[in-house]
Amino acid sequence: MFKTKRLTLRGYRPSDEEFFLDLFDNYNVIVNLADEYAAPNLGGHRDMLKTMIKCALFVVVQDSETCETIGFTLLSISTPRNLDGDLGMALAEKHWGKGYATEILEWLKDYSFKVLGLRRLSLFVFSSNKRATSLYEHSGFLVEGRIR
Question: The N-acetyltransferase domain covers which part of the protein (predicted)?
Answer without folding.
Answer: 7-148
